[in-house]
Structures are given as structure tokens and as C-alpha cells.
Write a structure and sequence with these properties.
Layout lengths: L3 E3 L4 H5 L3 H13 L4 E3 L7 E10 L6 E11 L4 E5 L6 H8 L7 E6 L2 E2 L5 H11 E4 L11 H11 L6 H7 L15 H13 L5 E5 L7 H18 L2 E5 L11 E6 L2 E7 L12
Parallel strand pairs: 1-2, 5-10, 5-11, 8-9, 9-10
Antiparallel strand pairs: 3-4, 3-6, 6-7, 11-12
Helix pairs in contact: 5-7, 7-8
Bound molecules: adenosine-5'-triphosphate and magnesium ion.
The site of magnesium ion (MG) has 3 residues, from helix 3.
């Protein structure tokens, strides 16, 4: 990680030092080349570095991402805005390991995605990433509870399914099949399936795109609750400008580039948003 040092690697050495020599050792380490100590799980949890991506060959080649860089801290709620075709879903797919960039790096909790072989990447995606699509992709012949359980099997430390069903307001619908649910209930089930494995990063592509005002608000409140309660990074793509106020960080893309990237001083609760 550049000139960052992972302090966990030094714990073995530090254990055998006296208190004085230990603090001197750490101070020297910090002073060395201005290096910063990186504690696993702290600060820049997700680093997106100079990502470039194009599709097509020759004359029909289109550069879709033209050098995207974003740094996101643990627990940060980030909203990604931009016009249709600006590259939002392409970026989300690259962060989610579904697609690979032409160049640039994705580093999650100190691990470079490019260094992971296919098998490890698949396992990593299963365990650490949650994906909420605009289309719900529920399994039609499984009940609400079973659809969520599918997600729980994928994680190492899944959340309690019954508690989550209550949080999602789906407990009384738990034995229904997807075609017996409203759009909002289906979307909540899809969120349940993504969140039940308690992923480090929750990627949402227009999670409210197909929903009416009231249901959209319900879903936003739910994602907000999940982010506050479990501290997962949330990266949410939306066309709805009003949603930016509920985020810690707002990134605005235009034509494959970042137009704006700033932190909100205060988060407006989803409840108080209006559009
Ligand atoms: N597999 C692909 N092959 C060729 N072109 C692609 C492919 N995927 C995306 N593109 C192109 O890349 C550009 C960005 O697409 P992307 O889906 O990332 O946009 P977006 O910002 O998510 O748009 P929207 O808001 O409409 O969902 C578009 O011009 C699209 O046509
Ligand atoms: Mg898209």
C-alpha cells in the first residue's frame, strides 16, 4: 500500500519490546518517509484509483470511464449521481468485481482486487459484497424468508434472519412467494438478501428507480438504518438529486469523469427528504 504500513504486521515484533522501546519504534516508523500507519479496517476502506474502461474495438471503441478516483471510509454512505450513460453502472460493476477495468486499481481494506485470482475474487464477492439491482432478481419459487436465507448461506457472519425480517417490515410476509408481494416488498426482500450476509460494502444501482414516492422513501430509510446499525459502506447510484443530502459523500459523474466529490457536513435523515 504505497508508503502506508500495516500495523498488524508489526504486532508480533512489538509484543517482545518494552513499553518505551515500543513507542520509540512506532514513532520512528511514523517518521520514516512520512509513512502513515494503516490499521486494518480503519480509514480509506475502499480506494478507487484512476479507473479507465472502454468498450468496443477500433472506430466503435468508446471510452466510458476516463480516470475515476474516489476514496471511501469505513461506514461511509456515498451517493453517486450523473446523467444516463455517464458510466455509473460500469463503475459499480468494476467495484463489485463483475467487470474488470482496463487500467487502475480497486483496493478494498488494503487488498488489491487485481491480485485476486478468479476463485478468490468469487469467494470475496460472495462474502464481502452485497449488490442491490434495480430488477429484484428474486427466486420465484422460494418464499421471502427462503430468498433471504440464500443470502445468509453466502456470508461468514450472517445476521439473524428473523430480526432482519422485522427490520425490513417483512415478518408477516415471510411465507409469501415473490409474485404475492408488492414492488416495494419485493425490493425490501432483495435488500434483505444483499444485507443478511452483513457485507462490508453494499452496492445499490438505482434501488428506488421503479418505485413510487412513498415506497422509495421507505427503501431509503431502510438502507439508512442498515448503514447506521451495521456500519457497512454504502455506494448508491441514483438519478434523484434530492437523495444526495442523506449521504456522507456525494460524487457526481459526467461523461466518464468525476465532476464533483465532496462530503456533506450533516446528513439529512431520509425521512426529511422531499422531491
Ligand atoms: N458491455 C457494454 N458494451 C458496450 N458499451 C457499453 C457496455 N456497457 C455499457 N456501455 C456503454 O457505456 C456507457 C455507460 O454505461 P453505464 O451503464 O455505465 O451508464 P449509467 O451511468 O449507469 O447510465 P444509466 O443512468 O442510464 O443507468 C453507455 O454509453 C453504454 O452504452
Ligand atoms: Mg446504470
Amino acid at each position: 500500500m504505497g508508503n502506508e504500513l500495516d500495523i498488524d504486521n508489526f504486532s508480533h515484533q512489538l509484543r517482545w519490546m518494552t513499553t518505551n522501546s515500543r513507542s520509540l519504534f512506532v514513532r520512528n516508523l511514523c517518521a520514516f518517509g512520512g509513512g502513515k500507519i494503516h490499521r486494518k479496517g480503519e480509514a480509506m476502506f475502499l480506494a478507487i484509483k484512476d479507473i479507465r474502461k472502454s468498450f468496443g474495438e477500433g472506430d466503435s471503441r468508446v471510452e466510458v470511464l476516463k480516470g475515476i478516483g474516489i476514496e471511501i471510509e469505513k461506514g461511509e454512505f456515498c451517493v453517486l449521481l450523473g446523467p444516463s450513460g455517464s458510466g455509473k453502472s460500469t463503475l459499480l460493476n468494476i467495484i463489485g468485481g463483475i467487470d474488470r477495468p482496463d487500467s487502475g486499481e480497486i483496493i478494498i481494506d488494503g487488498e488489491r482486487m487485481a491480485d485476486m485470482r478468479e476463485k478468490k475474487l468469487t469467494a470475496y464477492r460472495r462474502k464481502h459484497l452485497g449488490y442491490i439491482f434495480q430488477m429484484y432478481n428474486l427466486i420465484p419459487n422460494l418464499t421471502v424468508r427462503e430468498n433471504i436465507e440464500v443470502g445468509a448461506y453466502l456470508g461468514e457472519h450472517p445476521l439473524d434472519v428473523d430480526e432482519l425480517l422485522h427490520t425490513l417490515g417483512l415478518f408477516e410476509h415471510r411465507n409469501k412467494l415473490p409474485n404475492q408481494l408488492s414492488g416495494g416488498q419485493q425490493q425490501r426482500t432483495a435488500i434483505g438478501r444483499a444485507i443478511v450476509k452483513n457485507p462490508d460494502i453494499l452496492l445499490c444501482d438505482e434501488p428506488t428507480g421503479a418505485l413510487d414516492y412513498q415506497t422509495s422513501k421507505e427503501i431509503l430509510k431502510l438502507i439508512e438504518t442498515v448503514n447506521r446499525k451495521y456500519g457497512n459502506v454504502v455506494l448508491m447510484v441514483t438519478h434523484n438529486d434530492a437523495i444526495k443530502d442523506m449521504a456522507d459523500r456525494v460524487v457526481r459523474m459526467h461523461d466518464g469523469m468525476i465532476r464533483k466529490n465532496y462530503r456533506n457536513e450533516m446528513r439529512v435523515p431520509a425521512e426529511n427528504l422531499d422531491w
